[in-house]
Specification:
Elements (H helix, E strand, L loop, with lengths): L1 H25 L2 E3 L4 E3 L2 H32 L5 H19 L4 H26 L2 H33 L2
Antiparallel strand pairs: 1-2
Helix pairs in contact: 1-2, 2-3, 2-5, 3-4, 4-5
């Protein structure tokens, strides 16, 4: 029985990666000053983390960020996105999985902070520290929008799928 559950979980996580990449790619807004973009990747990461915990958040976060950059022409960000979005999913899942509303909100905030700081460091490494600073507002908006969309969807999906 646990084997089929494991297969089901793997399939759902793979589907979450695919849906996250497609939705994020469709709603991709380039940000010239940072050489990056604003997208809905964070919503999928939050859904996975709150439904499947730190491992699910790490997997969906890392793979979604990596694949999105690969197909969007941002190859310079691929490895950084694997790490940054993977850590974001790990933190949200670790702090918010199967916890109360207050802990989940704090987990979302912590995940957004990790993502914003991660891309500040990424842009500072790839370009200049000023590029990292310029990305803080747009990355913050991306994180908040992802949380506003992802959090209620995660709660509803968890209830519907009985995860």
């Amino acid at each position: 029985m646990s084997s089929s559950y494991s297969v089901r979980r793997s399939v759902v996580l793979a589907l979450l990666v695919a849906v996250t990449v497609v939705v994020a790619r469709v709603f991709l807004i380039p940000v010239p000053m940072t050489h990056g973009n604003v997208n809905l990747c964070d919503a999928g990461i939050i859904i996975a983390a709150l439904m499947y915990g730190k491992r699910g958040g790490l997997i969906v976060g890392g793979l979604s960020g990596f694949l999105l950059d690969l197909i969007s022409g941002y190859a310079q960000y691929m490895v950084f996105s694997l790490i940054v979005h993977g850590l974001e999913g790990l933190i949200v899942g670790w702090l918010g999985y199967n916890k109360g509303r207050k802990a989940q909100i704090l987990a979302l905030i912590a995940g957004i902070v990790v993502m914003v700081l991660g891309y500040f460091i990424t842009d500072a490494i790839l370009y200049k520290p000023v590029a990292g600073l310029a990305g803080i507002p747009t990355n913050s908006i991306q994180g908040v929008v992802g949380a506003v969309i992802g959090y209620p969807l995660a709660l509803k999906l968890k209830q519907t799928l009985k995860v």
